[in-house]
Design a protein that fits this description.
The chain has four helices and five strands; from the N terminus they run βααβββαβα. By secondary structure, the protein is of the alpha+beta class. It has one domain: Gcn5-related N-acetyltransferase (GNAT) (Aminopeptidase), CATH 3.40.630.30. The model has no long low-confidence stretch (mean pLDDT about 95).
């Protein structure tokens, strides 16, 4: 297993982040436009924005994974939890501890922010991802709905 370091994204990571974000979009069958990437990058570079970006790098400094996480209010408990919007490991780096390193970094953020849990969603057919998620979390008994605005 290669040594993996996870850090908060910085301006110097932009090209690597974009390569990984494009890979994530392709995996989700939602290609990332330049406008979308610029908007998300702007959020990540804005310390006042709720979205936080993590990037995993291998021992040679190559970016091999990313995660985007944010606070999510939980009104019934009067608290916040974390919400993992995106996680992606470059195909060539899978099985090398990147997933675990990203989750360890996310756990540290959760501890610092006082989040009691972190939630996320994934596609039903994401069998590889779900097998990894099953190792680190409990599946929630919820059904996700979406209402588009005209």
């Amino acid at each position: 297993m290669a040594k993996v370091q996870v850090v908060h994204v910085e301006e110097r990571h932009k090209a690597d982040w974009r390569r990984l974000f494009d890979g994530y979009g392709d995996a989700c069958k939602l290609p990332v436009t330049d406008d979308t990437a610029e908007a998300v990058w702007g959020w990540l570079m804005d310390p006042a924005h709720v979205l936080l970006g993590l990037i995993a790098v291998d021992g040679s400094g190559r970016a091999i994974g990313l995660a985007h996480v944010r606070a999510m209010p939980r009104p019934l408990s009067g608290s916040e939890c974390g919400f993992l919007d995106d996680i992606f490991v470059a195909p060539e780096a899978r099985g090398q501890g990147v997933f675990e390193a990203l989750f360890a970094a996310m756990d540290k953020i959760a501890e610092e922010k006082g989040w009691q849990s972190v939630r996320w969603q994934t596609r039903e057919a994401n069998y590889r991802g779900r097998s990894a998620y099953d190792r680190v979390a409990d599946k929630m008994p919820f059904v996700l709905y979406k209402r588009d605005m005209a």
